[in-house]
Amino acid sequence: MARFLKKRDQQLGRTPGSPVFIGQQKIDRPRIRKIDYSASTLHDAFFPDMEGMTPPQAGEPCCWLNIDGLHDAGLMTTLGSLFNLPSLVLEDVVNTGQRPKFEAFSESVFVTLKMLFFDRDHTMIQSEQFSAILQDNCLLTFQEKPGDIFDPVRTRLQNAGGRLRNSGPDYLLYALLDCIFENYLKAVEVLGERIEAFDEEILEDPSSELLEEINIYRREVSYVRKAVYPAKEIVLRMVRTESELVSAATQPFVRDLADMVEQTMDAVDIYREMLSDHLSSYNMVMNNKLSETMKFLTMFATMFIPLSFLAGVYGMNFESMPELHFKHGYYVILGIMGGIAVAMLAYFKKKHWL
Amino acid sequence: MARFLKKRDQQLGRTPGSPVFIGQQKIDRPRIRKIDYSASTLHDAFFPDMEGMTPPQAGEPCCWLNIDGLHDAGLMTTLGSLFNLPSLVLEDVVNTGQRPKFEAFSESVFVTLKMLFFDRDHTMIQSEQFSAILQDNCLLTFQEKPGDIFDPVRTRLQNAGGRLRNSGPDYLLYALLDCIFENYLKAVEVLGERIEAFDEEILEDPSSELLEEINIYRREVSYVRKAVYPAKEIVLRMVRTESELVSAATQPFVRDLADMVEQTMDAVDIYREMLSDHLSSYNMVMNNKLSETMKFLTMFATMFIPLSFLAGVYGMNFESMPELHFKHGYYVILGIMGGIAVAMLAYFKKKHWL
Amino acid sequence: MARFLKKRDQQLGRTPGSPVFIGQQKIDRPRIRKIDYSASTLHDAFFPDMEGMTPPQAGEPCCWLNIDGLHDAGLMTTLGSLFNLPSLVLEDVVNTGQRPKFEAFSESVFVTLKMLFFDRDHTMIQSEQFSAILQDNCLLTFQEKPGDIFDPVRTRLQNAGGRLRNSGPDYLLYALLDCIFENYLKAVEVLGERIEAFDEEILEDPSSELLEEINIYRREVSYVRKAVYPAKEIVLRMVRTESELVSAATQPFVRDLADMVEQTMDAVDIYREMLSDHLSSYNMVMNNKLSETMKFLTMFATMFIPLSFLAGVYGMNFESMPELHFKHGYYVILGIMGGIAVAMLAYFKKKHWL
Amino acid sequence: MARFLKKRDQQLGRTPGSPVFIGQQKIDRPRIRKIDYSASTLHDAFFPDMEGMTPPQAGEPCCWLNIDGLHDAGLMTTLGSLFNLPSLVLEDVVNTGQRPKFEAFSESVFVTLKMLFFDRDHTMIQSEQFSAILQDNCLLTFQEKPGDIFDPVRTRLQNAGGRLRNSGPDYLLYALLDCIFENYLKAVEVLGERIEAFDEEILEDPSSELLEEINIYRREVSYVRKAVYPAKEIVLRMVRTESELVSAATQPFVRDLADMVEQTMDAVDIYREMLSDHLSSYNMVMNNKLSETMKFLTMFATMFIPLSFLAGVYGMNFESMPELHFKHGYYVILGIMGGIAVAMLAYFKKKHWL
Amino acid sequence: MARFLKKRDQQLGRTPGSPVFIGQQKIDRPRIRKIDYSASTLHDAFFPDMEGMTPPQAGEPCCWLNIDGLHDAGLMTTLGSLFNLPSLVLEDVVNTGQRPKFEAFSESVFVTLKMLFFDRDHTMIQSEQFSAILQDNCLLTFQEKPGDIFDPVRTRLQNAGGRLRNSGPDYLLYALLDCIFENYLKAVEVLGERIEAFDEEILEDPSSELLEEINIYRREVSYVRKAVYPAKEIVLRMVRTESELVSAATQPFVRDLADMVEQTMDAVDIYREMLSDHLSSYNMVMNNKLSETMKFLTMFATMFIPLSFLAGVYGMNFESMPELHFKHGYYVILGIMGGIAVAMLAYFKKKHWL
Ligand SMILES: [Mg+2]
Ligand SMILES: [Mg+2]
Ligand SMILES: [Mg+2]
Ligand SMILES: [Mg+2]
Ligand SMILES: [Mg+2]
Ligand SMILES: [Mg+2]
Ligand SMILES: [Mg+2]
Ligand SMILES: [Mg+2]
Ligand SMILES: [Mg+2]
Ligand SMILES: [Mg+2]
Ligand SMILES: [Mg+2]
Ligand SMILES: [Mg+2]
Ligand SMILES: [Mg+2]
Ligand SMILES: [Mg+2]
Ligand SMILES: [Mg+2]
Ligand SMILES: [Mg+2]
Ligand SMILES: [Mg+2]
Ligand SMILES: [Mg+2]
Ligand SMILES: [Mg+2]
Ligand SMILES: [Mg+2]
Ligand SMILES: [Mg+2]
Ligand SMILES: [Mg+2]
Ligand SMILES: [Mg+2]
Ligand SMILES: [Mg+2]
Ligand SMILES: [Mg+2]
Ligand SMILES: [Mg+2]
Ligand SMILES: [Mg+2]
Ligand SMILES: [Mg+2]
Ligand SMILES: [Mg+2]
Ligand SMILES: [Mg+2]
Ligand SMILES: [Mg+2]
């Protein structure tokens, strides 16, 4: 199954703006969680469907609506008309192969990107698409399946005096993005810890398992890079956006995000380069080892060649070979053989072949 | 036959703006299809030539005129004067080696690019040139031969309440480009599915057929890249164009195209890099395999060298070689040979050569 | 002789603006051809020198003055004062190592670039410098030697109703540049046709002649690239120029040139990349072939090693070697040898070394 | 322990702006040093805590407050409220993994970057984070541990007539940055001196220790590059800043810093390239050496092959082998063997294999 | 001694703007040469020190003051106060490791760069720092040691009617820079002539001396590149400068310099690429040669293996080996051996191994 590109056969030739789910369904039916909060109140509840729900009016508490599961076209259409969402946005929300993206509309700001998790069991970065639509006093977020990294934010929401409870949904969006980017750094850190250890292992034990592991880490670093690079673009657009939905008070925090994404990118680039260095180191070390082995064996063989030749000569059956009849011929020839061996060893030493 | 550059001998020294066909003729005579549509009406018909045809007047239904086959200079000249087309545009339309291009004139917008199809039989991306000229309420499109990927658009045109029937020719142009770019992604997806599978095959069975296949996929990915890169430029120019022929209502859709082209480019770049990694992996695996083989064989040979030497020594014909007359000389020497063999195996083991 | 940089010893320390010829003299004395044309008249004549010539007055027919041969400093000085040319321009005209360049002065526009020809006899791109100075109603052009690619333009000049006869010298300049750029594409096409054929040859017959040929094509593609890259800059400056000497009517044609140069650059880049792929393919194929050969030969040798050892053992002269006296000892040992050979072949097969 | 990325587990999910220390604690309790200076006065003292300290009022002497040790959250919070520091700045100050950064606020300018030292004992660049907050007439600086490179600045502060005593805290900040960047250049110079010497050593004695050393230097140059690249960005932002805290009189000095950083970057890039050249040189030299060795040994072996074959032939036990009974057969065959050896040597010479 | 970075130990921690000499002293005491020129007058003299010298007043002849030798801090300080030079400029003038630089002040324009000379004896580019300070009607220039490339300029200064005598010090500065850049091109040309000849030598005689020479040329081309790249920046800043010290009449000449620097950079890049191609060509040629040798020798050895085995078989001492007693057994076996040899040669031929 292609990991870098999602199958989009259903999409071919469809009317643009159709909310056709692209991806793998990871939950039976969507799960809806609605948190209404203001400086003084906090309501947190799960709902089976959208029945009876309306966007919060001006003056009402801020609303965070999170949907886990993107395959229910009916739900999406309902949401779309209820919150007056552009159809092209809905199409992007349900396309799990969508490229990370920031777009500002007159009444909504739309952000989509990947959440990354390091799956230790498969030495593999797993990803889940996260989309958010920011409106005047509500924030819609979409995930592929239940379970996320936002619990610290939900905890901070319970602190009535905290900045979260006293700010608008733009600050909530920032807080979620901050979680996501912290997790990027975390993922890179986990990869990096192993990568920085390869150096020594290559010198000590360049097994073929190590080579395979290096290649796995290269692939995973590439995978992270694919997610992080467009994320930088997104944050930069968010910094520069003229939409009033992102308030001036939230802007310094968004700039801080840019900082973090840049640091992640720096680290990704350093590890990519390091892995590529590791590969060439591995190659050099392997080549040197093999060369040493072959050289040793060849020299060993070479040393015996003139000796065997001599033995062959005195194994010939000529009638008149005077040496054969010398009293100590045999011992002399053994001595000569020993001398040749010593001389060759000395020559090899002198030539630094040994 | 050069696939990346078309022969243009007829073009050398010609007056600029001459509609000289450059390419391979793929159909006997051009085929003309005219679809007139408005919110309430729809006429779809084939015509043998341009006789009696006129550009639609303001207020008349929108007209989509598609021509399959570009070699008929007479037809092109007639079209040019009928629709008042710039001669340099006509020259580009009939040049199947034309670089993808967007150009806005006062009364026309001109777009040309390649349609891509994956030809499974030859593991090869096939391309066909598509050109479009957008005017006030008509759209002219040109293809090299009959048969295309636009049937879903034609089907949607039959839906009287749909956006296509209620928008101008600029939205129709968008719909056609959307089909073309969906097919780009489709082509990359087909390539990518195979490419992502190479990883494992290289480790398991690095045959020379696999190497050839990797090289074929590199060539095809390069070919797609050649088409997609300028396509991005085109869409970006279309987004930024000041021509009133592209209406504000259509602009968000054009931006969505940019999105899709960027995703295609990302995928193309990832697969390019992956294939290059595959090549070096293949090389490493092959090198390792060969080295292992050679090392094994050399060690095997080396082990016998001192044994054969010993046999040679005792095959010498010296008169006085006391060992030959020892009672168990033969068995002793066989034992010594066995001992040497075992010692060497132990040494190889210790040196990790085995 | 350095092909990529011209000797400029005479230039060291000279007063700037001196028309010192840099290059190889290719003609005995300069050849002057003057074509005066208007919608109604056409005069074409060769002249031995500049005597009596004056720049055309306003209202007089347009004048195209072509000089073949750049080494005559006197002629250049005469031209300079007659047409009031900036001295730095004259210096550039006679420097055949001048980088391609576009410069707009108050009363002149100056363009210099290389004409390219594919020399089939030496598989080599030949180049000749072309310079042009555009003034109000005259065009001066300079070449290194007689013979050029502009005959189609001269033919079109005879067509009294054609655009050339009815436009100013800026359109004539465009027509000449169009010829030059068509020839760039032609040169790249000729190189490309051979380059695209290398692929198969490498797989079938990777001879060392092929390697040399690939390297020759790399050098030539580099050479073309050196000429085409700055040519693009030139055309872009010509598109953007504010000089009134390039009329609005000619601008669309200049933009079309940009198109063609970009296509040439695309092709050059593709062929560069292809050649670099070819080199690594060649290397891989050669390596595989050699490895196969070496592996086969080594295995062949290895198979005989234990057999020869056995023969050696039974060639020893020990007094008591019971096997030697067995009735069928010889046949038994031959059978054992055959068995060992078969076993080793089976082992090699199992290990996929055969 | 990952050297290129700091563990930030405590940071995951925290409220933004919390001064959570990220890094390794290198001192027991923070050390505070306060220098108040004006043209006429100079007070220099150490303090155990912030008790009783207040920011200097306008007109009071300039204050330089340096804190060594970043782990004391209480101290940081006190400082923050006393000097009215943005909470995001405090968070960056105590994050020793923070990317180098310049940010201008309304009443503060914030700079953070790394100080580099070459640790000769471990052939390793060590780094320490330096942060500075510039306010109207005070400068706060933060380091990870006591001991720094600023003593020359402190010495110059004692010169009552010097520019330092007569300028504001912006010039003091410049003087500190100047020290830091001088040390960058120094570190690169130390690396470079060794790197430039590798060239010859590779030709003379390409040991595997040398290879390891080259790889160590590559890693250290990478490490320096990671610090210097963002430093350039910082200085450029400082040059372009519109903050009035950086006075016009200090600007030429800041531009001079940019100069120095660019020179450092140039040097880093040159040494990177040089090291990469060294690696390929090393590889070539090693390959050539091995090839020479193998070729020599193989030729040596080859020369004996036909000789041994001949010996084998005349070791056969056929009843009728006339040569065996020739009177001088033995000497003739020895002569033939000598002749073959000489002929082969001559052939090898002719083929330039020797 | 590090060639790419100058030792700057004295600089560490010094007050910014101190004229501390960095580099190698190449002359005992500085040499001062003063040329005063106007359209009508010319005075040229050497002076031991600055005593009695004053900057020329408005209306007085133009003054060119050249100082050879930068180590005399006293002289520099005198100059600085006399001509009112910024202290940071003085610091740069005496730092021979200063990066090339252009800076415009209110009353001075400062330029510093390297002069390059090809030292044939050591196949090495030598460099000397050149700095110039342009003021209203005087030009100060600084070199490391006596002897330069400006004699042609001094000669042209004697021509009372020439442009030099009739222009200001900005044109004189241009003339000096023109000399410097001509020498850059000259140096590249000298390198290039040898580099372009490597191609053939690699095919004919790929000795290890050639490899070393290629590496030397790579290093020198890198060295030139280090000087030329920032020189381009300088000229571009000079073209764009708004300082009135560079007059409009001189601007076209400065643009012509830009042209020349760009051509030099083009050439440097081409030769860099060419050298890198040469290295891989060299490697391929060497590999092919070695492979051919090894293959030949291995095949030679292989051919004898079955023959020696046969000889071994008939050297066995079994009692009953009927072949040994055949009348023509010996000749038959010799014939069989010959047959095997011929068959193997045929097989090798068929497999294209020969
Ligand atoms: Mg779509
Ligand atoms: Mg979309
Ligand atoms: Mg989830
Ligand atoms: Mg991989
Ligand atoms: Mg991307
Ligand atoms: Mg930053
Ligand atoms: Mg044309
Ligand atoms: Mg065209
Ligand atoms: Mg078609
Ligand atoms: Mg986008
Ligand atoms: Mg190799
Ligand atoms: Mg000049
Ligand atoms: Mg010039
Ligand atoms: Mg010519
Ligand atoms: Mg160029
Ligand atoms: Mg274009
Ligand atoms: Mg392209
Ligand atoms: Mg290929
Ligand atoms: Mg944070
Ligand atoms: Mg921060
Ligand atoms: Mg410290
Ligand atoms: Mg490393
Ligand atoms: Mg960085
Ligand atoms: Mg600078
Ligand atoms: Mg530089
Ligand atoms: Mg090198
Ligand atoms: Mg300094
Ligand atoms: Mg400086
Ligand atoms: Mg000098
Ligand atoms: Mg080097
Ligand atoms: Mg130029």
Automatic annotation (TrEMBL), chains A, B, C, D, E:
The keyword Magnesium applies. Pfam families: CorA. Keywords: Cell membrane, Ion transport, Magnesium, Membrane, Transmembrane, Transmembrane helix, Transport. It catalyses: Mg(2+)(in) = Mg(2+)(out). One of its GO terms (molecular function) is cobalt ion transmembrane transporter activity. The keyword Transmembrane applies. InterPro entries: CorA_cytoplasmic_dom, CorA_TM1_TM2, Mg/Co-transport_prot_CorA, MgTranspt_CorA/ZnTranspt_ZntB. It is a multi-pass membrane protein. Residues 1-20 are annotated as: Disordered. The chain crosses the membrane at residues 296-316, 328-348. GO terms for cellular component: plasma membrane. Belongs to the CorA metal ion transporter (MIT) (TC 1.A.35) family. Mediates influx of magnesium ions. Alternates between open and closed states. Activated by low cytoplasmic Mg(2+) levels. Inactive when cytoplasmic Mg(2+) levels are high. This is Magnesium transport protein CorA.
